[in-house]
Each structure stands twice: as structure tokens, then as C-alpha cells.
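Tutorial, part two.
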Amino acid sequence: MTTFKSEFLNIMQERGFYNQCTNEQGFDQYLADCEKKGVPAIGYLGSDPTGDSLHVGHIVPLMMLRWFQKCGHKPIALVGGATARIGDPSGKDKLRPFLDEQTLQSNIEGLKKSFMKFLSFGDGKTDAIMVDNYDWFKNINYLEFLRDIGTCYSVNRMLTMDSVKSRLEREQPMSFLEFNYMLLQGYDFCVLLQKYGCRAQIAGADQWGNIVSGTELGRRRFDTELFGFTSPIITDSNGKKMGKSEGNAVWINDEKLSSYNYYQYFRNIGDKEVGKCLRIYTDLPMDEVYRLEQLQDKEINEAKKILAFEATKICRGEEEAKTAQQTAIETFEKGIAGGDLPTISATGSISVLDAFVELGFVSSKGEARRLIKQSGLKLNDKPITDENYILTTKDIENDKIKLSQGKKKHGLLVIQ
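Running the prediction step on this input gives:
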């Protein structure tokens, strides 16, 4: 294990965030010089508002930026109001659908909310700031952009980038619009350099080509070395990307997913993922992480509870984490329906199929029927056998109607 001069890179390596760096030695020296002088380094993380919330899969680079700030540096959160109008081709097989202005603005506000859960914003020297690249792209002159920026790029070089190369190898068409994406992201980096002195970009591994386009533009256009630093794509023991639960994204924003469900996602992490998740999704000291990841058999559940609480505390706040924790205790340890369980309401009655679809436990009535045949759905802890069953006030027990899928997913129905 390499020992770095800078606190930030040492933390990144120890906690499993380090994947790739454009110039490891140069970046380390830049950070160390800033730390020694008490002057914050400035780095940014960008996200296109293609949705109205980030999800757990986006948290890895976001936590990197959080540690960047904890080490005394200044983060910039960039919302891609301009680049979202084009669409990042990385990992895609086709052009993203265009968003209308109302949806785009709603998504931008949602992303801002996501960023604010992990970073401290304000006017201080290490406080995060938020920018939108639409502010500098909306009035840009196309001919000037081609002349000043386009001449710094080689098409030959662009064709070797994974986001382009993989599409061509799969014989999937790529529009000229998408081909321009890396120029725009590279330009973002240089605008942030000029406006804020930003010299670092933090992102996931899939953004490597776009990052390099920025560092190369900085060198050619402004004779300045910029640094790119990426995290690995986090997968579970089966090689699947983390961040989704049974096909559904684990959203950061409260209105998209309850704190209880967020807590339960981490509570139900596989045993082999506990250490990795403690390192990445919590602020716990490494001594505590080492202790917890050594637990075996039934004791590993205690580590999962701590993981779930600490991860939820960062994203939703301590009070929400405590409430989610208490609901889990009541539901799973005391055998009663905790008050913070996902809840739906109906007037008079509702079919059992509709109830499970509305709770989000199943994606369709067909899936609900299949699970009923497998005794996978329960009403008040008893297997449901009739797929045509209608839920009414007669099903109320202890002032509640409890609906469950398997042993880990529970919700409540209120009949009005």
C-alpha cells in the first residue's frame, strides 16, 4: 500500500475509493502543498439532471467529495443543465430521450437537494458551492467554440475513448450530438479552472474518457495541469452494480424513498459486502470498520445494523436514522408493525394485488399473482392464498393491516 503525502489520497486508498488518477504523484503533491499552506484545493463533481434524485450508485464519488471537504478542501457541485440536453453516451446504446424544460428544471432542483445531503454549502473557504453549466453554455457562440476548443481535440484520439469505442464496436449508432459530449465536459473543467481555480475532477470510473478530455484541454489551451481522480464501480459479490434493490433504484431524496426503506437496503446487504460498505457509505473511523468487518455468523448482523444506521444518518439525518432503526426493531425483533413502515391508504376496500403494487413491493399484478402461488405474500403475517382477495376493515388487527413480501419487506394499509 502506497503512503501518500496528502491526507485525502491516504483516506481514499484506505477506504477503497481509489481507482485511477491522471497523475498520482502530481495530484498528491498539489494536495499536500495545499494542506501544508492551509489553502484549500478545489475539486468538482458533476452530475447531469436526467432524473430528479441521485441514487445509492451515485454516492461513491459524492462521498469522495465529502471526504475532500473533510480534509480542508473546497468542493464544487456541478449540475449539468447544458450537458443533460445532449446526454452522456458513456455506457449507453442509444441517444437519451430529450427532456422538456419543466422536467429539466425539476430534475435540477432534485439533484441540488441530493448534493446538499452530503456536503456543507456556504460562503466559507471550504464550503461547497453549486454551479450549473447551462450558465456558460446558453449564450456560447458555436463558431468561436469550434475554433477555440474544437481545434484542441483530435478525432483520432476521441475514437479511442471507451464511450465512443464501445458503441462503435457494438455497431450501435452514435449521433454527432453525443460525440460532442466530451468536448463540453472538458470545457466545463476549464471554465471552473478560470472562474474558481479548480484543478481536480472527481468522478466514477465510467467518466475517465470525459475527464481526460478536460485535463488535456487544460494543458493545451491554458498550459495548466488538471487532475482527474476516479472511484471504482462498486459491485456486490455476484458482480452486480450496487445501488438497486430488486430492480428498483435506492434513491437519496426523501420523497423518492422512505428513510426506513433506505435503512433496510443497507441492513440487508450481503455478508461479504459489509466491510466494503462500511468503508464507503459511512464516516466511521477505520479502527471501528476493521472491528466490525471481522464479526462472523450471527454477529455480522450487528455490523449491518450499524452500517444501516450510519449510512442513513449521513443521507437522511440522525433523527430519521433513529426512527428507521426503531421501526426495524419493532418489526423484526418485537414482531409488531413499526410506525414508520411504508404506508398506503384506500377508501372502503382495495384488491390485494393493487395493494402490493401500490406499496411498490411488486412491479405488476402478474408478479403479485406469482408470489401468492409461492406463498410469498402475507396479510398480517399469514400467507395469502386467494389472488382475488379484497382487503377491507375486517382485516384490521391491532389498528393496522400489515402486508409483507417475504421476511424483509413490510408495509401498512390504512382503510378510510
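The chain has three domains: 7-231, 258-333, 343-415. In part three we will examine how such features are distributed along the chain.
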